Amino acid sequence: MRPPANYKVTDTTEKRDRGRPRKPDAMSNAEREAVWRARHARMNAIPIHLLSLALFAAFCATLTYWIVMLTSLSGGPLPVAAVRAPVSVEQAATLFGGQLQRSANQDVRLFGILALRDGAAAIVSAGGEPPHAVSLGSTIMRGAKLFEVRPRSIIIDRNGARSEVFLPANAAGPTTYVR
């Protein structure tokens, strides 16, 4: 782009548009702005450094607090949450019109196991009766005999068909007795 025809180059000592002459050693606007930015950059750096230092101190204090809190747990181990029995999918199917098929061992509950020198026995409850001890080969209920005793379960023989009954996952008190 070319300058207009009435444009003329002026000396710094000539009058400018505002009516006063420019001093030969005067700064331009760009120089003045650069000086202002440099002065304010130094003044703004101090508060930023102080703020960073304060935030770092707060972080260290928080970290120290949590380290002390987590390493000084004076109580014993926390109690274990009670284990719930798993939800039966077959029983849930009855909500949507399915048929409930009763297990052969659904009416037999195992409360404990007795390990003896001469054999073994189990503490069972059949058909809602109170729990009682049953030795190997004895009748638990009509048509069901105690066939085998294992460390955490028993095998029941129902007219030749064998099925296993397990101890509950969260049995109260001791479940295996040795004599």
The major β-sheet equals: 4 strands, mixed
Order of helices and strands: HHEEEEEEEE
Helix tally equals 2
Helix content bin: 25-40%
The low-pLDDT segments are none
Give me the count of strands: 8
Q: Output the radius of gyration.
A: 46 Å
Structural class label? alpha+beta
- Overall morphology: rod-shaped
* Share in β-strands: 15-25%
Mean pLDDT: 75
Distance between the termini: 112 Å
Biggest sheet: strand arrangement: 3-2-1-8
Oligomer: single chain
Which terms summarize this structure?
alpha+beta; 27% helix; single chain; four-stranded mixed sheet; 24% strand; 179 residues; 8 strands; four-stranded antiparallel sheet
In short:
The protein is of the alpha+beta class. The protein has helices spanning 29-71, 89-93; strands at 108-115, 120-126, 132-135, 139-141, 144-149, 153-158, 161-166, 176-178. The N and C termini lie far apart (112 Å).
List the helices and strands and how they pair.
Elements: H1 29-71, H2 89-93, E1 108-115, E2 120-126, E3 132-135, E4 139-141, E5 144-149, E6 153-158, E7 161-166, E8 176-178
Question: What would you say this structure looks like, in words?
Answer:
The structure is a single chain. The protein is of the alpha+beta class and 179 residues long. Helix content is 27%, strand content 24%. It has helices spanning 29-71, 89-93, and strands at residues 108-115, 120-126, 132-135, 139-141, 144-149, 153-158, 161-166, 176-178. The longest helix is centred in the first third of the chain and has 43 residues, at 29-71. The protein is rod-shaped and about 125 Å long.
